[in-house]
Specification:
The protein is of the alpha/beta class. It folds into two domains: 175 residues, Rossmann fold (3-Layer(aba) Sandwich), CATH 3.40.50.1000; 84 residues. The chain contains eleven helices and seven strands. A seven-stranded mixed beta sheet has the order 1-7-6-5-2-3-4, sandwiched between helices. The chain is elongated. The two termini are 20 Å apart.
């Protein structure tokens, strides 16, 4: 057995042992050891469900909006759910794979129109702001995110965020998490004109970063947008942030590595540095 094969087997065994003591922590799995023979020349990070868990923040924000709409118009929560779902579906169908298709403001505007109340600009803005204020107050970074970013900064490797949604919202998240001094660039699908997995967000990021080599690590949670997109469009080394074992290999797409703890990525970088 070669030195590198022995080392990667040892890593996988070590992470598997760690995970056995905590059922909510899943072992890091390196599927393609040959992709991890050198330090990366640049890092690309997704945001939602990669740097922090999206669902708890979204659930709290959606409940806050539901409660306010129900109280304002004296309707049932079920009525709100149905109208909001229809509004969201209509906006997404019209705007397809663009940043605007994620706009909560457009969802609120269309919801009010479906309720035959017109656009109601002040109410739409109020509901949208309620959503994002509540969202941010309930969003919490995954453990060891900042520590990993500190490690990367000390190595002098450029870092960028490549994410869907509008610049205003994603910038607000980065500032709220106090990550603005960690990333050299942020590229949103609003700037690129397309959501991932379109090539534009990835290529714009690399144009800005100007990495010294071609070894680019993409760290994200979505098997299609992040993993398949980065692999096909920029030939990136792909690392998938997973919450459950079942999240791996969705759609038959296998990342080069998968992990649940950012501390495992820190250990991987430490090994490569040594």
């Amino acid at each position: 057995m070669g030195r590198w094969s022995y080392w990667f087997n040892a890593i996988n065994n070590h992470f598997s042992y760690q995970s056995s003591t905590n059922k909510k922590v899943y072992p890091m799995k390196i599927n393609n050891p040959s992709q991890f023979m050198q330090m990366p020349d640049a890092f690309l990070f997704d945001t939602d469900n990669t740097l922090y868990p999206y669902d708890p923040a979204h659930s709290a924000a959606q409940k806050a909006v539901r409660d306010k709409v129900v109280s304002t118009f004296s309707i049932s929560p079920e009525h709100f759910d149905g109208v909001f779902k229809e509004a969201r579906n209509q906006v997404k169908a019209r705007l397809k794979d663009t940043a605007a298709s994620h706009s909560r403001l457009l969802y609120m505007q269309r919801m009010l129109e479906i309720m035959e109340l017109g656009s109601q600009v002040l109410l739409a803005l109020d509901f949208e702001q309620t959503y994002w204020r509540t969202f941010l107050s309930n969003a919490i970074l995954f453990k060891d995110v900042k520590e990993l970013l500190d490690d990367i900064r000390l190595l002098g490797i450029p870092i960028a965020i490549v994410t869907d949604l509008t610049a205003q919202i994603q910038f607000r998240k980065v500032v709220y998490f106090e990550l603005d001094n960690y990333f050299d660039y942020i590229v949103t699908s609003e700037e690129a004109g397309f959501d991932k997995p379109h090539e534009a967000p990835f290529k714009i990021a690399l144009e800005k970063m100007k990495p010294k080599g071609n070894c680019i690590w993409m760290i994200g949670d979505n098997p299609i947008s992040d993993i398949l997109g980065a692999r096909q469009k920029i030939n990136a080394v792909t690392l998938q942030k997973v919450q459950t074992i079942s999240a791996r290999n969705i759609e038959g797409i296998e990342p080069d590595a998968s992990f649940s703890k950012f501390s495992d990525l820190r250990k991987l970088l430490q090994k490569l540095r040594n």
